Structures are given as C-alpha cells and as structure tokens.
User: What shape does this take?
Amino acid sequence: MIKIENLNKIFNENTKKEFHALKDISFEIDDYSCVLLKGISGSGKSTLLSIIGALSKPTSGSIIIDDENIAKLPDLYTSSFRASKLGFIFQSYNLFNHLDVKSNVLIPLIPLGFNQTQINKKVNKALELANITHKIDEIVLNLSGGEKQRVAIARALVNEPNIILCDEPTANLDLHNSKKFIEVIKKLKSLNKTIIIATHDPIFDTCDFVDKIINIKNGQIVE
Ligand SMILES: Nc1ncnc2c1ncn2[C@@H]1O[C@H](COP(=O)(O)OP(=O)(O)OP(=O)(O)O)[C@@H](O)[C@H]1O
Ligand SMILES: [Mg+2]
Assistant: This one.
C-alpha cells in the first residue's frame, strides 16, 4: 500500500517566487490497484507524481511505500529505491535517440549487476510485454511516436517494478496508439502491478480497470 499523508510542496519557499504547489494532500493507494490523478494543467499532478516516485522531496508530509517513508529517504538511497520498486513512463519518453531499442531498455539494469544472459532475458521479457520486440535493433530516432512510447514502457518494466508511474502517457499518441497503451496497462494490472496515471485524457474515464480517481485542483484534492 502507498499511504500519502498531509503532503505539502512549496517551491521557492521564503522568496518572492514562493508557490504552494501541493496543499495538505492525503490519500491511500491499495496494492495492485490503478489510480488516476486528474486535474487541469498546473494543478500539481506531475509534482505529486515526482514526489511519489522519489524524484523530489516534499516540503512536509509523508509517503509511506512498503512501510518506508520515502520523504525521509536520504538522497543516497533514492536511486536504489527507484531501481528496485518503481517504473516511470514520461510524456516525453526521455529516450536516447541515437541508441538502439535494446540499449535504451537495459539502462535501468546497469547498476543492478546482472550478467549478460540475465540482462537479455529481462530485456526480451519487457519488450514482449510492451509489444515492441520486433524493433529490438532499431535506432530510436527511426521509430514512430507510438513505438517510442512502447520502448519507454519496456524500459519502465525491465526491472520488474511493483509500482508504475505514468505522467500524461497518451498526450503524444493518436487514438489508435492510446488504445494500445490502455491494453498494456490492462495487462500490467492483471500482473498485479500498482499503477498511477496522471492524465487529463478522457480516454481513461471509461476504463474498467481504474479503481480510484483523485481530482486535484490548485494543489488540493477535490471531490
Ligand atoms: N520547480 C518548480 N519551481 C517552481 N514552480 C514549479 C516547479 N515545478 C512546478 N511548479 C509549479 O507548480 C504547479 C504545478 O505544476 P505541475 O507540473 O505539477 O502541474 P501538472 O498538473 O502536472 O500540469 P500539466 O497538466 O500541465 O502537466 C505549476 O503552477 C508549476 O508552475
Ligand atoms: Mg504534468
């Protein structure tokens, strides 16, 4: 379970540019569930996702994941925490365009000390889950938008994380590829992953695998 309690994020605290981006956010996410974070642009979705993903620290409050308060996790440990538990799928993919698909997907495995055989096995499994195996040797630059996203999905899955965080995953996809993305999420749900999706795409509104919708407005949860 992920338990978020009284979370606040203030950017540029005690300066003229001070901005209270998250205000006293509290909610829980059950294991193996799929949660949508919804809200208009600037409401705080990405800020919240980056804190849940231990990419940034809250100003106050706690995020308990597997009995560990990651708000208090020393920076030295956040990358190994991410490597063992989390997969990220970003809107802009964040891929290395001049490397091939395989090299991009195996990057999260590098610090984990696997041998070549183990790496190949894990990469192939992730590519298969994301339906992009046929492009394994292609340079990312040559892929379509939907294919790039599937590479990003494979990279997010390669370390077999239990929690998958998606930030506007369909923002750069056409309807056909958005539907394909939803199929992948469905599959991940059936594999008992916990999934959090920040989005304003109405395509998710009709997905029966969504267990909870959290609406955020001006950094606060609204009903
Ligand atoms: N590093 C930062 N410094 C100052 N302000 C920031 C910073 N990051 C985000 N903000 C502000 O916090 C607010 C929430 O931003 P956030 O990116 O979380 O919104 P969002 O809901 O993800 O929006 P979008 O749908 O456009 O992605 C915005 O007003 C933004 O300008
Ligand atoms: Mg955002």
